[in-house]
Design goal:
Layout: H1 12-16, E1 35-37, E2 47-51, H2 53-59, H3 66-72, E3 84-86, E4 89-92, E5 95-99, E6 105-112, E7 118-124, E8 139-140, H4 141-157, E9 163-176, E10 185-196, H5 202-210, H6 214-228, H7 237-259, E11 261-262, E12 284-285, H8 310-325, H9 333-358, H10 365-381, H11 385-393, H12 397-402, H13 408-415, H14 425-448, H15 450-460, H16 468-479, H17 484-492
Antiparallel strand pairs: 1-3, 2-9, 4-5, 6-7, 7-10, 8-10, 9-10, 11-12
Bound molecules: adenosine monophosphate and magnesium ion (MG).
Length: 525
C-alpha cells in the first residue's frame, strides 16, 4: 500500500509520444502532438467527499492524508507525475467536430500495483487545458457526484467501465447555465479522480487520421495493441485488433441493455478503444421501459442516442474508427468485413443475454421470437424495467403451474407494482398474452431444472439501480451539507443483485417526472 503523494508514477504514454511541452493553457490546436503538458489549477480547499475503498485496495492506495488530498484537488503535483491533457477529435451527433481533447481532464500519471496492473489516474474538473475551448475546465458537484457514483455502480453491476477513486469538493464556485437559457448561476465545484487502464478513445485515432499523420497513427495503434491487447501479434495485428474492438463494443452495448443504461452522448470521442463505458454525462437508467427514451435534452430533436438505438450508433461509431485506421491497411476489404460482422456478433450476444434475463436454458430460434415479443410488448406497456424483471423472476410456482387456467387478472395483479399507468385493454391483453407464452416456454425447462431459471435470472437482472431521481436527491442533500443519502447509495450500489436495499425498490415517484436532473438532463456539467 502506498500514498498518492509518495508513489513513483509511470508515464509510458507521454514517454512514447510527442506532446506540446510548453505548459501553456490558452485554447489552441496542437498539430503534431498527441497531448499537451497541463498543470492542474489549484483550488481553494479540497475536501474528501467520496473514497472508493475497494478500488483503492485493489490498486494498493492508502486512504488519503493531507498531501494526497492536495493531489486530488489539483493543488499538488509530485515530481514523478507528468500531468497532461490528451488530444483527440470526434464526431458529435453525427458531425465531424475536429479537434476536441481533454477539456477538463488531466492525467497525472500511471499507477502500477504490485501485481503489475497499471491504471491511469486522471482528475476531471481540475481546470483549463489547451483543449478547453470556451469551457472553464471545471466540473460542478452535481455532475461529479453523478460520475463518481454511476461509474462505480456500473462496475458492481459487472458492466465494463472506467472507475472513480475519489470525489473532492473544491471550495470554489463554478458558473453554469443549467437550462441554456441565460440564467447562469453559481454551483459548488468538485473534482473526480478517475481510473482506467487507458482513456484512449476512437477520437484519438480519428484525430491522427484527420491530420494525415500516418506515422503517429501507426505508432499509436501499435502502442495500444502492445499495451492493452498484448496477445495480438504478427503481420495482421491491426485488423485483429479492430475485430476485438468490434467485439468488445458489441458486448458493451448488450450489457447496457441488460441493465437498462442509456449513455446519452455516444459521440466518437466518448467511445473507449477498450470497450469501457466512459465519460458519464447526461446518462440515465431506464425507469419505464422505452426504447425511444433519451435522457439528454440536447439529443431530444433526433433522439440519436435513445436507449433502443445505442447498438446502431455503436456500429456507426465503429465505422468512424475503421475509416480512421484504414490508411494502415493495404485494402479496406477486411476492415469492411469486420465492421459488417458487428451486427451478427451483436445479435448473438443480445439474444444470449436476453435469454439469461428470461431465465431460459438455451436460446433457440423460436426463443428469439419470444425475446422480440418481450421487446415489443414492454415498449407498448412501458412498465418499470427493473421491477418488471424482478417480478418475472419471482413468478409464483402456482402461476407457473396453472397453465391455461391462469387468469389475466392474476397476471395483472402480480405485475401491478411495475406499472406506471393504467393499461389500455389492448395493452393489458398483449401483456397477459406475453406472460402466458413465457410460462409455456419455461414450463418445458422447469421439468429439467427448476433452479436453473432462478439462478440465471438473479444474475442477469439487477434489483437495485442508481436511478436519476435518487442521484438528484443525494445531490440536493449534499449541496445542503448532508452526505447521508450519498453514502447510503455508495454502499447500496455494491450489491445491486441483492434485496438488501429494498427501500429503493419502487417506482420513480411522480414528482420526479418533470424534474430536471431526475428524468432528463442537459450536458451543462
Ligand atoms: P463530453 O461530451 O462531456 O464528453 O465533452 C465534449 C468535449 O467538451 C470534450 O472535449 C470535453 O473535454 C469538453 N468539455 C466539456 N465540458 C467542459 C468544461 N466545463 N470545460 C472545458 N471543456 C469541457
Ligand atoms: Mg467526452
Amino acid at each position: 500500500m502506498e500514498n498518492l503523494s509518495i508513489k513513483k508514477y509511470k508515464n509510458e504514454f507521454t514517454a512514447a509520444f510527442d506532446g506540446d511541452e510548453s505548459g501553456l493553457l490558452n485554447p489552441r490546436q496542437t498539430p503534431g502532438f498527441l497531448y499537451a503538458k497541463t498543470m492542474p489549477t489549484p483550488v481553494k480547499k479540497p475536501e474528501l467527499l467520496g473514497w472508493s475503498e475497494d478500488l483503492a485496495s485493489e490498486l494498493e492506495i492508502n486512504t488519503p492524508l493531507e498531501d494526497d488530498l492536495n493531489i486530488l484537488g489539483g493543488n499538488l503535483v509530485t515530481p514523478s507525475m507528468y500531468p497532461y491533457a490528451a488530444c483527440y477529435a470526434g464526431h458529435q451527433f453525427g458531425n465531424w467536430a475536429g479537434q476536441l481533447g481533454d477539456g477538463r481532464a488531466i492525467t497525472l500519471g500511471e499507477w502500477e500495483n504490485s501485481k503489475g496492473q497499471t491504471y491511469e489516474l486522471q482528475l476531471k474538473g481540475a481546470g483549463p487545458t489547451p483543449y478547453s475551448r470556451r469551457g472553464d475546465g471545471r466540473a460542478v458537484l452535481r455532475s461529479s457526484m453523478r460520475e463518481y457514483l454511476m461509474s462505480e455502480a456500473m462496475f458492481y453491476l459487472g458492466v465494463p467501465t472506467t472507475r472513480a477513486l475519489a470525489l473532492v469538493s473544491t471550495g470554489d464556485q463554478v458558473l453554469r447555465d443549467l437550462f441554456y437559457n441565460g440564467n447562469a448561476a453559481y454551483e459548488p465545484g468538485a473534482i473526480v479522480m478517475r481510473a482506467a487502464p487507458s482513456f484512449l478513445r476512437f477520437g484519438n485515432f480519428e484525430m491522427l487520421a484527420a491530420r494525415q499523420d500516418e506515422k503517429n497513427l501507426q505508432k499509436l495503434t501499435d502502442w495500444t495493441i502492445a499495451q492493452f491487447y498484448p496477445h495480438i501479434t504478427g503481420a495482421h495485428k491491426v485488423i485483429q485488433w479492430y475485430k476485438e474492438v468490434v467485439e468488445k463494443t458489441a458486448t458493451l452495448m448488450v450489457e447496457w441493455i441488460r441493465v437498462g443504461f442509456v449513455h446519452g452522448v455516444m459521440n466518437t470521442d466518448n467511445m473507449s478503444v477498450l470497450g469501457l463505458t466512459i465519460d458519464y454525462g447526461p446518462f440515465s437508467f431506464l425507469d419505464a421501459y422505452d426504447p425511444d427514451f433519451t435522457p439528454n435534452t440536447t439529443d431530444l430533436p433526433g433522439r440519436r442516442y435513445a436507449f433502443g438505438k445505442q447498438h446502431t450508433v455503436a456500429y456507426w461509431n465503429l465505422g468512424c474508427l475503421a475509416s480512421a485506421i484504414a490508411p494502415l491497411l493495404d485494402s479496406t476489404e477486411e476492415l469492411v468485413a469486420e465492421l459488417e460482422a458487428y451486427e451478427h456478433i451483436y445479435f448473438d450476444k443480445y439474444y444470449t443475454m436476453m435469454g439469461n434475463k428470461l431465465g431460459l436454458d438455451k436460446v433457440r430460434q423460436p426463443d428469439r421470437n419470444l425475446v422480440d415479443l418481450f421487446e415489443q410488448t414492454l415498449a407498448q406497456v412501458k412498465p418499470d424495467m427493473t421491477i418488471f424483471f424482478q417480478l418475472l423472476t419471482d413468478l409464483p410456482e402456482t402461476m407457473i403451474h396453472a397453465g391455461k387456467n391462469l387468469a389475466g387478472e392474476d397476471i395483472l395483479l402480480h405485475f401491478k407494482p411495475c406499472f406506471y399507468a393504467e393499461n389500455s385493454a389492448v395493452a393489458a391483453d398483449a401483456f397477459c398474452n406475453l406472460i402466458q407464452i413465457y410460462i409455456q416456454r419455461i414450463t418445458a425447462d422447469h421439468i429439467i431444472n427448476p433452479a436453473g431459471r432462478l439462478l440465471r435470472m438473479r444474475a442477469a437482472n439487477p434489483r437495485f439501480i442508481l436511478r436519476n431521481y435518487l442521484l438528484h436527491m443525494a445531490i440536493t442533500d449534499m449541496e445542503k451539507g448532508d452526505p447521508q443519502l450519498f453514502l447510503k447509495l455508495k454502499e447500496a450500489l455494491k450489491t445491486p443483485y441483492s434485496s438488501a436495499h429494498d427501500e429503493f425498490f419502487k417506482l420513480r415517484p411522480e414528482w420526479a417526472n418533470e424534474q430536471p436532473g431526475s428524468s432528463t438532463l442537459s450536458c451543462s456539467s
